[in-house]
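Box 4.2: Ligand-aware structure prediction
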Amino acid sequence: MKSGKLVVLGSINADHILNTAHFPRPGETVIGSRYQVAFGGKGANQAVAAGRSGADITFIACVGADDIGERVRQQLATDNIDIAPVEAVPDTTTGVALIMVNGEGENVIGIHAGANAALTPGYLSRYQQAVTDASALLMQLESPLETVMAAAKLAKAHQTRVVLNPAPACTLPDALLACVDMITPNETEAEALTGIAVTTNEEAARAAAWLHNKGVATVLITLGSRGVWLSEQGAGQLIPGFRVNAVDTIAAGDTFNGALITALLEQQPMAEAVRFAHAAAAIAVTRPGAQPSVPWRNEIDDFLQ
Ligand code: ADP
């Protein structure tokens, strides 16, 4: 009998965000109007969304042996997450995203994986019992692919449901897709995976069929404010999201994924779980930022009343 527990395996980044009137040219220095450090990384964002929405969650990840890594760990612990498998890796720095935002709201981003690159199959093997005991494993693609592959195989062999949010967009080996029970690409990621541009329901159905053919039983293509295309057992349907005044859609997909798994692990039927996840993501897009925008369970329940 499985535990009802969730394991999230993924990345942690510190986002350094500098607002400037314009981007500097090579050799130029520009003075910023605002600077902030925000905690991000798709793995951490999804872990936070799962923890705040009520999952019994363990996070497998790496931070650097630095001050910001310790601050991230402390923050994650306050978000209802078991962080025992979030280790500070000696001689590494916490993953960073250096983000400049210009006056038009455009951004340029440079990323350094840092400690995220230390999330190797060897590191995973220290925590494999968490994966084999869990009811579900949620992953993204900001970690080494060989580790994602090893975790997917391990989970599959122990009847742990494998959920993959295939972000950032890329192509994936068939051997990985064969281990995945549920996949949650957005439109861009669905196109990168399948080669089918997803703009209509028919195209979403075709992309879903492509993924079913690779062995994925449940396909959920998120469609931004339109909601999601859900496809399982040969039948597809659009499940619309909630209409809200969106101010910032950063981490919408991460919030959706974390909350979706929480609801599924509570044995909510798929359509209700999607509605729960839509509510969580709808709240998140009405607030600025990534992790600060992720709602707690009582806020989602209130929204749905
Ligand atoms: P990603 O952030 O990965 O690109 P999407 O943009 O597809 O993902 O959004 C994921 C989910 O977030 C949607 O299925 C929906 O539930 C919610 N969402 C995104 N944008 C909006 C919006 N403008 N209004 C309401 N909900 C939204």
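In the box above, the bound molecule is adenosine-5'-diphosphate. DSSP finds eleven helices and 14 strands in the chain.
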